[in-house]
Amino acid sequence: MKTNCEEANYMHIASGATSAKRSRKLPEALAVMVVAMLAAFLLAACGGDGESSSASSPAATTTSIASSPTGPQVTSPCPPAGSASALTGAGATFPGPLYSKWIDAFGKACNAQINYQPIGSGGGIKQITEKTVDFGASDGIMTAEQEAAANQAGGPILHIPMASGAVAVVLNLRGIQSGQLKLSPDVLADIYLKKITKWNDPRITALNAGLNLPDTDIAVVHRADGSGTTFIFTDYLSKVSPEWKAKVGSGTSVSWPGDIGGEKNAGVAAQVAQIPGAIGYVELAYAVQNKLTWAAVRNKSGKFVEPGLEATSAAAEGVLLPDDMKVLLTDSENPNAYPIVGFTWILVYQNQPDKAKGQTLAYYLWWSIHEGQSFTKDLLYGALSAEAVKKAEAEIRSISHQGQPLLQAP
Length: 410
What we know:
Layout: H1 28-45, E1 62-63, E2 76-77, E3 86-91, H2 96-110, E4 113-117, H3 121-130, E5 135-138, H4 144-154, E6 157-171, E7 182-183, H5 185-192, H6 202-205, E8 219-223, H7 228-240, H8 242-247, E9 260-262, H9 264-274, E10 278-283, H10 284-289, E11 293-294, E12 296-298, E13 304-305, H11 309-316, E14 341-349, H12 355-369, H13 386-397, E15 400-401, E16 404-405
Helix pairs in contact: 3-4, 12-13
């Protein structure tokens, strides 16, 4: 099933205008009195906040799509006058469904057009480094070499967290429902190492008493492109399997032992759906959209857990968050956590070369970590915790142009 990640429709909000008739000339003292009384009346009508109730341009508009789940309601301002009306971004497919919703909602509220291309985290890192987009997106932390290249191109680059998400282990086995098949960390790693090649292998059947598993070859599906989803998945396998760490390792791209490559989350989902006996990994929203069966994976506490909203959010609980937010959530200590979870980040240069674009970007990111969080639940992403929001706020406030902060927010 094709998602709408790559396209979004935008509606423009026309700013209103007010007019007033000139009053007849009054004596100066009387005019002052009338003006004062009229001002007091209008202030009371507006609730005493001093803001006009008429429609206004984006420079004076605020948005309040919904309350933030991480705290009290926040009313985020739209970009001020002189800000760019359009931005471009590219990167991770993992948050594609969420970003599509955000871009549509922010565009309608603030009359901004954002063109985001979900080409994969590797592509997003490449394009932000080459400065062909205004922002990149990745589910993987940039390597030291990647950061050095970006720093040389445009200065310090920020990893700003937007949400968390689960990587579901999906499979194509007739008669098996989601959550029925149980996989331990070592078994999952050995399937991807091609050491376990049949679904009725004794190590799998030992975990799944009562399931009639077929004598079918396991077709291993993986990402063929540079992928943050791969970064999360291989980081997990590297933590739970010393052999995987030594032979394959982790990253947005690795040398896979086999079998079948798919482009983007949608490509992996399509391969698993089409090939009997296949196993793969995709972001949870893609598994749901494509009606794929997923496995329950044993977490660090020994509990078999399915990917889901509560289990995704649990993975981030109790994790020490550094100021730069470069932190991994895989193999959580939380007994209720699904073990293959990660943050997804927007990548932006701290020093913006274009003030107009930088302003729109800063205000969009601010909206995303506040009002935007209300969209996470329905799309099965984990909302940022209150602590993560504070860390992200500090990063966004640091975005500047020629030493001047670009965000003016409460």
